Structures are given as C-alpha cells and as structure tokens.
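Narrative of activities, Objective 1.

The group set out to show that a structural description can be obtained from nothing but a protein's sequence at a throughput compatible with the screening campaign. Below is one input-output pair from the validation batch, recorded exactly as produced.
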Amino acid sequence: MTVRAKKHLGQHFLTDKNICRKIATQYGAHQECKRVLEIGPGMGALTEFLLENGGQEVSVMDVDTESIAYLKTHFPALEGRIFEADFLRVKLENFMGEEPFAVVGNFPYNISSQILFKCLDYRDQIPEIMGMFQKEVAERVAEKPGSKTYGILSVLLQAFYEISYCFTVDEHVFNPPPKVKSGVIRCVRNERKHLPCNEKLFIQVVKMSFNQRRKTIRNSLKVLLKGGTLEHPLMSERPEKLSVEQFIELTFAVEKVLEQATPST
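Output recorded for this entry:
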C-alpha cells in the first residue's frame, strides 16, 4: 500500500532517509518538551525517525484520508495519536491538551506560512518548530534585517523565536520532485513572554510597513496615524532595515500619537 501524492494538498513525499534522520536528530526538545506533533506526515518517512528518539510522545496530523489509513496500518505505535484534521482550522488544545508540544514536519509548501502564523498564535504552548519549507520561505523566516528577503514573517517569528537555517534540500529527494529547492529551519522559543508594547498595534505597524516596502515607513504608516504626526528617526527608514527591537520602539511612538489623536471621554 502506498499513498498517491495529491497536488491540491501540496504533497511532495520525502524519500531520502538520511535527510529524514537529519531533521529528526536536529529537533532538540527545547525547554525539555517531550511531545511532538508532526504536520503532514504522508507515509511516515520522518515519523519513523521521530519515533526512534526515545522518551518522546509523537502525534501526527493530516487532512489526507489515504495517508491516515496508511499510518494506522504501518505505525501501530501511534494508536490514539493519529489525527485526521486540518491543522489550520482546528483548536489544537482539543488534540494536544494544554501541555507544551513541538511542531515538526515536511510542511506542504502552499500553506507553510499559514502554519507558522498558527504556531505564533500558540507560541506559549509551542517551544519549538522544526521543519522543511520552500527554500525561499525558510530563508525569509531566518533572515536578519538589511536583506531584501527580510519581511513580515521574519519580524513576527523573530519576536518570539530564535531561528536558525539548518540546511538546504535538493528537489530530487522528493516524490514528485518540487520545482524549487527546500530549506530546513529550527525555531526555538525565546524568553520574551509578551512584547513590552501593544502587540496588536505592533503587528499592524509591521504589516503596514512592509506592505509598501519600497517606501519609507513615514509613507506606509500615514493611514495608521489618523492624521497625526510622528517625528522619529525610524520613520525615514525602509522596513527591511528595522530589527524587532526597533519595531517595538516604533510601536511605542505610534501608540503615543494615537493616544493624542483620540479625544478623551
């Protein structure tokens, strides 16, 4: 029994066992987290090696009914921890409870950024993310300020995770081969429980700044400032130049302008 890769699910099954082993061994049980949720396991190429890491409780989640049937047949050790569900749509606490768990996987490229945003929503419960992405996405997430690939995803993930680019994977080790190279990254939770600024406003500032990344931040944030004026050195920069800390500083400054623009009741 095999599983047919489905284009609409973005499936590209990893066939190189050495790479699967490499991903599984570079997963580090950050903060001594011993529970792992693998997203999109397919036929269990990576699952096999995650199970070899002693002392870890491995669960898997996939929307593909065919993959679920395969896993139930070939991985009896996962009984009760094979979930047929859409990671992006479910409440993860209904499957993983309230305890911490890591997210690992060879993620479908068409939803990989959305997977990271969902992990951000559960950042207090997810101390580590280890996975394979389209190389361009992996590089963007791990990139530092000053690069053209540094963007919204970079800033928001790096606000709460330390990110390292682990290695690149060529196209030929997948079935079917994708048209692009892949990259593996590891994200481990930093010590920042919350941002010191208004987090919703921080996200707004970051997204609006990068929505017009060729312009200075002054031009990008005009609408957000609601007619207010903000004189700050960072307003003359382009967004790719700013670190997480500088976006936090900018958010504080924007918040003060908005407070002054809002009449007290």
